[in-house]
Write a structure and sequence with these properties.
It is built from eleven helices and no strands. It is an all-alpha fold. The protein is flat, with a radius of gyration of 19 Å. It starts with 6 loop residues before the first helix and ends with a helix. The model has no long low-confidence stretch (mean pLDDT about 85).
């Protein structure tokens, strides 16, 4: 079990996170929108947000943006989703790396993420990359907590975290596969399957919907 953070370490982590937040906020509202950003911000119903561009990306990020930007469909509000996710990822990286590295090394890793130009760039755009990073680190942290101590709350958080990650990007399986493998080796088949059930159900539903959509497009092309 991890120990509470010493006061100096907590102050340093807060300072690093604050710098990362400021760097992500600067110019986030003045950068010209790109085509894929506009696609994530198109106004419409919740169902339209879910189904839009579904063959390329799952709906988690678009649904999150849809709720945050109601009712204005503001680009700045939408980008704040990435800003917040990118900033929280700095803190989560420390929590994850602290279980593997020394405290000073973990602070250094968080500082690199806070200052990295590409991390800042993607935290200022209305794309799913920062949310995907945040969700990935969150799954790693939640998995470590479950391996550390089995409890209903920790297992539920781990299960929902994996489902959220899967809803953000189709490549989430590259993250989930090794996590579930470790869980299988350490916790057994039954517990691992139960925790992965929401994620498996989500992928099954998305597969059916996407296949139907692709089939419908193919039929419409044949008719024309």
């Amino acid at each position: 079990m991890t120990k509470p953070l010493p006061r100096k370490v907590l102050v340093a982590l807060i300072a690093i996170t604050a710098v990362g937040l400021v760097l992500r906020l600067v110019s986030s509202g003045s950068i010209s929108p790109t085509g894929d950003e506009a696609l994530n911000l198109l106004p419409g119903t919740l169902w339209e947000a879910i189904m839009r561009d579904l063959s390329f990306n799952p709906p988690g990020f678009r649904v999150l943006v849809w709720f945050v930007t109601l009712p204005s469909s503001s680009l700045l509000l939408g980008r704040l989703v990435s800003v917040v996710a990118g900033t929280l990822a700095i803190w989560l990286l420390f929590l994850v790396s602290r279980r593997l590295l020394t405290t000073s090394q973990s602070l250094l890793a968080s500082a690199f993420l806070a200052l990295h130009p590409w991390a800042i760039f993607h935290s200022q755009s209305l794309r799913s990359y920062s949310v995907f990073l945040f969700a990935t680190l969150g799954v790693f942290w939640l998995a470590a907590r479950v391996l550390e101590e089995e409890s209903t709350n920790r297992r539920l958080a781990f299960s929902l975290g994996m489902a959220f990650l899967a809803s953000v990007h189709y490549l989430a399986f590259l993250v989930l596969a090794p996590v579930l493998f470790v869980s299988l080796r350490r916790r057994g088949l039954r517990r691992t399957l139960l925790d992965a059930a929401p994620t498996v159900a989500l992928y099954a539903v998305l597969l059916v919907v996407v296949m139907n959509a692709v089939g419908g497009k193919a039929e419409s092309r044949q008719l024309t």
